[in-house]
Design brief:
By secondary structure, the protein is mainly α. Helices cover about 60% and strands about 5% of the residues. The protein has one domain. It has helices at about 5-35, 40-55, 70-75, 80-100, 135-165; strands at about 110, 125.
Length: about 170
């Protein structure tokens, strides 16, 4: 990878570190509150998923960073199958249930019990997805910490190499 691409990668990795810090801050905040109403819990989990996934979804930015974190090149989840599974689940939820209304997560149906054609009332049901069901809450903080560590380690390595290549003023 040429030096310019390395710098773009370092920028993306720094953004990923910041995203992990933000997601972890939201997570710790909701945990510190203890028992909270379901809408607050769900909205916080939704925000966490969006923030976490930013680094792994192709950015359409024309900026000075790679479009996304290259998890394969970084061997992000080598030896961490549980974290990889949670990572994939969060990305799937973001793509299919949060950012888009895929049928798998947003099904509608005809409600025969609440339909009365004699008065012109037809009813449809909509099942809203629960983003928190079967969420591996015991792994979430570990995932943020792991991704931040891998990204930070790779970024510091690039930064050191780049800094050494700059001629003294």
């Amino acid at each position: 990878m040429n030096e310019q691409k390395q710098i773009l990668l370092a920028h993306r990795l720094a953004l990923a570190e910041a995203d992990m810090n933000e997601a972890e801050r939201y997570w710790n905040g909701i945990i510190d509150l203890g028992r909270v109403p379901k809408p607050i819990w769900e909205s916080t989990i939704l925000a966490i998923i969006v923030v976490y996934c930013r680094s792994f979804i192709n950015s359409e930015s024309e900026g000075e960073a790679l479009n996304k974190v290259p998890i394969g090149r970084l061997r992000m989840f080598e030896g961490e199958p549980e974290l990889r599974k949670l990572h994939d689940k969060l990305l799937a939820l973001r793509m299919k249930a949060i950012a888009h209304s895929d049928w798998e997560h947003h099904q509608t149906g005809f409600d025969y019990e609440n339909t009365d054609l004699t008065i012109g009332r037809m009813a449809r049901t909509l099942v809203r997805p629960d983003f928190t069901y079967q969420m591996e809450t015991h792994l979430i903080a570990k995932l943020f910490s792991h991704v931040r560590y891998v990204c930070g380690t790779a970024r510091r390595e690039i930064d050191r190499a780049h800094y050494r290549s700059i001629p003294p003023a």
